[in-house]
Amino acid sequence: MKYTDSDIQTLATIFTRIILEVYTENEMDEIIRRNHAETDKNVCHTHDFGDANESMLQAFSEVHGREPHISNHDDMELINAAWAQAKLSDFDVKPRENCS
Known about the structure:
Low-confidence stretches: none
Structural class: mainly alpha
Shape: globular
Oligomer: single chain
Largest sheet: none
Distance between the termini: 27 Å
Number of strands: 0
Number of domains: 1
């Protein structure tokens, strides 16, 4: 994969910001509850309340200045990794502090 852990973190952070703008607090509580009960790690219940793919496309475009190429393995790996990170953190992804 050509993307780094930092790239994953950045995309997960922007995706989370957008998701939190799109869904209400009650919807987010329900999404998180459903995600915790879900046994298939590839399922995210953000889709139960809207088209979360649009939020990811917006996040990717914001970060990379272009839409992802669906046929590009690296782009899709980045999207999947960032989405998994956002979901795993219950959409509480925060940017990393500068460690200088």
